[in-house]
Amino acid sequence: MIETHEIEIARHCIAFACANGADNARVNLNKSGIDGCNMLNGELDKVTHAADRSVYLYLFVNGKYGTFSTNMLEKESLEDFILKAIDMVKMLGEDTCRKLPDPSRTEKNANTGRELDLYDEAIEHTDSDSRLAKAKAMSIWQNSHKENNGEYSLISEECEYSESYDDSITIDSQGFEGRHTESSFSFFTEVTIQDKEGNRYSGYWWDTLFRNSDADPSECSRKALERAVAQIAPQPRRSGHTRMVVDSTVASRLVAPVLNALNGSALQQKMSFLDGTLGQKVFSESMNLMDLPRTAGRNGSRMYDSEGVATKDAPVIKDGVVCQYFINTYNAEKMGIEPTVEDASRPCLMPYMKGKELATEEISVSLKDILQYCRNGILVTGFNGGNTNPVTGDFSFGIEGFAFSKGKITHPVREMLITGNLKDLWNSLIAAGTDARPSSRWQIPSIAFENVSFSA
Amino acid sequence: MNCKNHYLDIFNVTEDGLKEITAKALSRGGDFADLYFEYTTFFNLNLKDGVVSSGGFHTDYGVGIRVLKGEKTGYAYSENLDMREMLKAADAASAIAQAGGSSLPYRAGTACAPDLYPMQKHWRDTDASALLPFLLELEKKVTAQDSRIVKVIARLSDSVCDVLMYNSFGELTCDTRPMGSISVTAVFQHEGKSENKSVSRSFRMGAELISGAIADEIAADIAEGIDERFEAVRPKGGQMAVVMGAGPSGVLLHEAMGHAFEADFNRKGQSIFSDKMGQQICPKGVNVVDDGTLEFNRGACRYDDEGVAGQKTYMVADGVLNSYLHDRISAAWYGVAPTGNGRRENFRYNPIPRMRATYMESGNADPASIIADVKQGIYVKELSNGQVKIGEGDFTFFVKSGFMIEDGRLTAPIKDINIIGNGPEALANILAVGNDLKIDNGTWTCGKDQSVAVSCGMPTILVKSLTVGGE
């Protein structure tokens, strides 16, 4: 964890830079560590230990700007580094839009890094034996051969258990100081199986929690195996248009390009299909996306962005209307508009079911409910490649998953593609559940769309 | 040897110190240990709205320590090269000795490999004032290409990586690896519609890369084909013949077979090619290579990150699966020599089998005749990202631009579609290989757990059938 003398190093960087030609400066000092155990086919395969440290320096000199980083934190080498950095900034072109954020916008209460309750001190008391025990407990290799009735064989099982921390402080020359500290306990399993015909299938499962007592990796491998087994014997399917349900484990893939298009960098460079849409209804009224970064004890929460600007809970898209662009200080100056936070921290898609009233806060809509509601279509449980044109919003993705009929899964499908435009897609939203994984930074539940183009 | 001393000085270590750290790493019973010292400097300049308005440099310095017990790995690193800190990391890595099994990896020897990327102008001796005019000139040349260009973003970046590798066989290897990259994105607007196009070049070479000629080349590429982009439609989706144009289509090889030939996946039985060594997997005459010996190429490796000399490896020779891509661990497991594919992103990662420059050698067919032989299909001109599922062999790649093929002729332009296929099926369904191999020199980066620089290449080829995304 960051120690007091390292905070002093960060403060010294600011003071030294400003005393040697910088008009303003911001420094981010980060320390992180990870310890992990990997199992291969029930046996210990790898142990890792890592400890990182870095200083990022943002310098504003004579209306010019540069960013620099190093992991050599000794005072003398840092001072030499800063002097060279200032020299380099002076060589760049002038851009008066480069500024620190107005001090009135920066967070004032992120003093200890623990305010959002994302750090579990238990991480300081674990050891290699306990990590190895958890990794071993994940493995089902020894028992798997007895349980499959000869339908498949387990070819390989890789389990990883790791514990990590991330501690950072950000300080600027206008008086901002903030600290953010997180711990995480992560587990991941990937299995490969082979069916009776010799076809291979893989499945994975994972989770990341910030509290040690919540981390129960014992079911991880079994879930991975279930996901692999479910893919056995895919059936061919014709190209056409049908309803698409996207499982909550992968649904954020369809939200990411929307948030990218709301980012100031994309907007300012005319690289966004949502350019000029602020305040306009672009998507279906059923689409409600909030950014909720101030919720304590939830992955993704943070009190300030990388500029130190205080985050706040706010709608991003409300009833289909674009409510917020994510504009940092630089892009705000360039675009002549008010700055906000620089990006979404913890986007949450609100529940919806076309034609049904979901009035209460306690409403629960599961994947099963959505499949029942949609009756027939394709359930997407994984994306395989693809891309989005940021300027037009046109997308094309490889998918895998299952066909479903009368609300029940009938058979796996694979080697299929979906193609369309993001505006059209989100205008055809017919359902959004409440089953976002609690441990995910992005709270995107299972979602369903009407009339999606599938190619096979 | 001055060369060796130069690198020992960079990391402020002695040969006795290297031996001490290695001994500590093996102190709990490991079979083999190696050290990977790295000092990398990164530099970048960024142009937006006609001004080089940001830039910076970054340094990274540390040592990765690996201990092997059989095929099992213990790995730790230190960013502090004080001897006490390095010994602590060595102790952490040594914990793998509790794992079972025992065997020694392949001894590579210490033969000096030829320098594949000598720098005429060292990047570290070239400051921003010498490079900034290039970006401004590049922007002018790009903007002059087409009046519809409304935005230009240009970036120049370079890195120089000094590495010193030492292992418990006593092998000591040193290398300096430069990389220079230029990328440009232009946004075009015409009659209310927008399009964008990106072009990049990347080479393992010094600042001599920066020239008027490369600026001209990039500017010409930016404007090429933009009319078709504005006119492009999406094809009707489904299975159809696909002609892959020469050059960037090499991403097909990278995804469809390259990853599946990486020996770690095969050693663990995960790859769809795990049981196909020595079998005919492509039509006769097809040769697929992973090559670390191309001078100045982005994927060039004088030595890999285990100190093994760079090589040219025929993965497929005359249609037969000939070799996997090995690091020292998999080579020992298979009882073969390593192929120089043990690579890592930086000292924070242990090496694993990774590709370098992956390409198919030229065949005999005339590219025009390949297109002429297709009744209905698509021609792929520019691609971007790809992906593969190792076990199933399903791969995809994204087509940024191309054309419909109708009755042997290129007709309507197409764009922004994904293509999906199955590796073994696609390889078996290669119907023609053109005589026009082209290596693509874009900023290709492979992301298998760690990011490493690679490149790819391809002659024009015809695949009988792949699934094409569409309306």
* Most residues in contact: chain pair: A-B, 72 and 83 residues
**Backbone CA Rg of chain A:** 25 Å
Rounded average pLDDT of chain B: 94
- Structural class of the helix and strand makeup of chain A? alpha+beta
As for the number of domains of chain A, it is 2
What is the CATH class name of the largest domain in chain A?
A: Alpha Beta
Stated plainly, the CATH topology of the largest domain in chain A is called PmbA/TldD fold
Helical residue percent of chain A?
Answer: 10-25%
Q: How many helical elements of chain B?
A: 11
Could you say which overall geometry of chain B the principal axes of the C-alpha atoms support? Answer: globular
Which series of helices and strands of chain A comes N to C? HEEEHHHEEEHEHHEEEHEEHEEEHEE
The main sheet of chain B orders its strands as 3-2-1-4-5-6
- What's the N-to-C terminus distance of chain B? 64 Å
Which word captures the global form of chain A?
globular
Strand adjacency order, main sheet of chain A: 3-2-1-4-5-6
- The helix tally of chain A amounts to 10
Number of strands of chain B: 23
Tell me the fraction of residues in β-strands of chain A, as a range. 35-45%
Which structural category do the helix and sheet elements of chain B fall into?
alpha+beta
* Number of domain modules of chain B: 2
